[in-house]
Amino acid sequence: MSFLSRFARAGAVAARTSLAPLAAAVALSIGLLAAPFDAAPASADTHTDAAKYYGIWNYDQPDAATLNNVAVLECPDGSGQCDPQLPLPLRLPQVGWVVFSPGPNGTINGHTDGGCTWNFTVHPSGLELSSTTQQCFNPTVGSVGNVTKWSVQVHGNRETEQIMAVSHQPNGADLIAPMASGSRTKVVHGQDNGEFVKRFLGDYRYDPADMQTLTNIVTTDKGAAYPEQGTVRFTAAHTAHGRIIAHTPDGCYWTMNVRGDTAELDPATQTCHTATGDRSLIYWALVTDDGHHINSFSAGSTTAPGQPPTNTFTYVGALSRPVNN
Question: What angle do CA 295, 301, 302 make, to 5 degrees?
């Protein structure tokens, strides 16, 4: 059975989570999916300065209270009854970056850290998707979906955005994943990342796992789900400026690059060899603005000796610095 048709379940935990709609909706809502532009996109408005959008933009840390940078996976009617296999509505914090650069015919391309490219037209009020049918395969969650709206506004080094995603499920249900309030900060070229690195250094402990919110729940393509727990220690990588090493509870360590408030794997794919098998990560992104809480999203695999790989995903990762740390 493929990843898109499996169910996650955790031993004695009664709640069951369908990975099929979750994978597609998470991919859409966190902006990791993107797509080739249409063959003949509209030209940009000649009265708009497109250059102000160019560069790397990181999501600010999600705010659970205001729902800034939090997409909400839900039924179109808000009832939560259209797909009983999911704990709806489900809040999905956003993590990662986008690079805006010149596109064809006066448009702008937005390349995300998931490896896909969206195409936008430039208007006096901001950027809008050049079509509502853009989509592509996202390897970090193994699915394809559709984003119908992505509006972007920029004021100096601050960006705001609104996203609407639609996910069509194999069981016939349509789920939406709106993010009414999103914000990013531009990564300024040549900036000193020392202060940002300091926010990560030290010990962070996984918050209590919650099957209803999927906080710190690892799901697999073999139908399992289990809690992510323990302490992650972040240390400075003295071999290169702006790099950190994440020491995870399983005894592995992962090299990450810090740009602004966001740290991501560098190199992008890493493997740790343990006594029980191999663990690989193809994506791990962290964000912290306050140096006390980290939001994360990760995808990878585990491989036991003599067994095929098991794909793993943590869609809603949350860590906090211990009070005495």
Answer: 120
- Note whether 63 and 56 are within 8 A (CB): no
pLDDT at 85: 75
41-to-58, 169, 296 alpha-carbon distances in Å: 26, 29, 34
Identity of the amino acid at 210: D
- Report yes or no: 17 and 87 within 8 Å, Cβ to Cβ: yes
SS (H, E, C) 129-192: ECCCCCCCCECCCCECCEEEEEEEEEECCEEEEEEEEEEECCCCCEEEEEEEEEEEEECCCCCC
Residue spans of the chain under pLDDT 50: 1-21, 24-25, 27-47
Place of tokens 């979750």: 22
Q: Return the amino acid letter for 231.
A: T
SS3 284: strand
**pTM of the predicted protein model:** 0.86
Spatial separation of the C-alpha atoms in residues 144 and 141, rounded to whole Å? 9
Distance CA 301, CA 226 (A): 14
Which pLDDT tens digit goes with each residue over 288-316?
999 999 999 999 999 999 999 999 999 99
DSSP H/E element including 21: helix 19-29
C-alpha distances in Å from residue 70, one per residue of 131, 222, 262: 24, 28, 16
